[in-house]
Every structure is written in structure tokens, then in C-alpha cells.
Design goal:
mainly alpha; 383 residues
Length: 383
Amino acid sequence: MGTWMDQVTRGWLIYELTDSALQLGLVRGIQAIPFLLLSPIAGSTADRYSRKFQVVAAQFANGFLYAVTALLIFAGLIQPWHVYVTAFLMACVQVFLQPSRAAMISDTVPPKNLTNAIGLNAVVFNMARSTGPALSGVLISLFGTGWSYGVQAVFFFLATVWTLQMSSIRQASSLARGPGAHEESFGQSIVEGWKFSWRNETVRTGILVVLIASLFMIPCSTLLPVFARDLLQVGAQGQGLLLTSMGIGALCTSFLIAAIGDRMPRGILMLGGVALYGALVVIFSASPWFPLSMALMALIGLCHVSSHALVQTIIQSYSPREFRGRTMAIFHMTHVVLLLGGMLIGALSALVGTPWAAASMSAVGTLCMIILFFLAPRAREIR
């Protein structure tokens, strides 16, 4: 909930302070730096040390940063540079949170249930996506961004308390490798993770798909404050409803993954879903009506799962336990591309306008997926 509320609150705050579409992209782009520099370290850390401790520490740090931001807003001291600094620090925290949290799922379920478990995780994730942005939009409309950040802090502190109550997760990867598990250096561990991810064709294909989606399609959400305020004229609450519609669509697909699991033709759904994602963003960019835009965002949400939860199930299913933290770190390194895509779409928006920027980048992404479909025929056979 806190993470998805931040998608609305941070964008709305920086747009209020600067009135600049370019800075909407920049505030996301600065978060690429920690993902670029720290993700390999975070992946190795998740494979070597307590994943539960990393999750607890990261969640508490996130809650603290949200609380500080809320206090700055309430005191009337908030400045654009505060938004940039807290965005950078939160990215540092997320780098260590995500691989450990994702790998904990694989540690607790048998391999035959892994796809269903990740699908169930995606259901909960997208339930938060469906409600968090709407809640944030209502809070901003009624009370301002400070109250939204305050609620986000409470959510993260609650998550920290509940994680502490969990029983310890068995570090299966370390146990599997025996007493000499930590004899290799961090550098060797990182290199081995990259080698495995590149040599395993299925893992490599999944990472390429999410790279394309992260660079060309997903950054469209960076410009939602512009669509909501200036083009559709529905304000912060309307922006929250657009993200909520996307979350509802993603929730429906997540239920499908959780229910059907390994029986799905995952390769075809992954490639086709991301290609359709780009085409729908092109149509959304041309929509002048808010109800149509909401319907399109729901369809985009249906396809968004193909670029995230579905790819995650494929990567985890085809990665042995001892590499899972590192492959998930590489998967989450695509945030670098996503944030760079956010900067690129912000710059394009300043040059050619928001609708043209979103439409042109998404069209290129769809073309890339069509090319991958024909150049990697074995990707269509992934199950």
C-alpha cells in the first residue's frame, strides 16, 4: 500500500513544487543510481545472509523516510531537493528489500507450487495497487500530500512489526552449499550470478522482456500527473483512479496466475502480453475522455502482469535455490532501465508533448517485442 501510494504522492508533490514534466522524469531517474550500483551486492547478500533481517531493516528504513517527508511538508519546509534526496535513499533501501523478499517465497514452498505462490503474491500486490493510489488521491485532495506520506509511514511500520513476528526462514541456498558456502568472495559471487543468468536461455529471455517493457512501456505512468491534471483535467483523485484501474486489471491476471499456475503457456503470454501493453498505451495517449482512459488503464493492467509477475515466475522457476537471490537482483536491476525510461519520456514530453512521447516510446517497445518473438522461437515454448 505504501509503495503504491508513493507512485501518486511523489509525482504529485514534485509537480506541485516545480510544475515541470521534465522533473517528473528526473525524480524517478535519480532512483536508477542505487539500482545500478548496489543490486549486484544486494543479490549476493540475499544468497549469503538472513533474508528476514534484510526485509525488516529495509521496511523500517522506508517507514522512517516517509515519516521525515511528511514532517517536512507539515512544517512548510519541503523543497524539490528534499524529494530528490528521499527518492534516492528509498531506492537504496528497495535495492536490498526486493531480492530478499522475493527469494523468501521460493524458500517456503515446494517447486511444483512456486508459480501459484508467486501468483498469489501478485494478487496481494495488485490488491494494494488497486486501493493504494485511490487512497493517496483522496488524501491529497482532502488534506494534502503530507497526510498521504504520514499514512505511508504507518503502513511500512506495520509491515515491519508483522515481518518480525514471522518464523525464521530457512536459508536453503546456504545450507545446500554446505559449510564453505561463504568462501567465495562477493565479487566471485556476483560474477557467477551474471554468468548463470546469461547462459540460461529462459532466464535471459525473461530479463530481455522486462528490459523492453521497462524502457518503453511502463514509463508512461511517470506522466500520469500530466494526463490527469492538464489533459483529462481530473486532478490528483483522477490520477489515483487511473492507477487503481490499472491495479484492478493486474489483479484479475494475478488471480489467473495463482489459479492455473504451471498449466499456462507462459512464453506466449509473456511475449504477447507485453506487445499488447505497448499498443494499449498508444491508444491511451490519444484518449480525450476520462472513462475511456480508465478502461484502457484496466486493460494495460491486465498486460502489465506479463512484464512483471509472469516474468518473475519464469526466472524463479528456472533458477536453482543457490542462485535465486542473484537472479532476482538482476531482475530488479531492470528498475535502472525503468527509471532511465522515466527520464527519457519526461525529456521527450518537454520536447514534443506528453501524448506523443508516451505513444512513440510504446510503439517502439511493441516493435521490439515482435522482433523478439521471431528471433527467439524457443521463448514461445517456455512453460
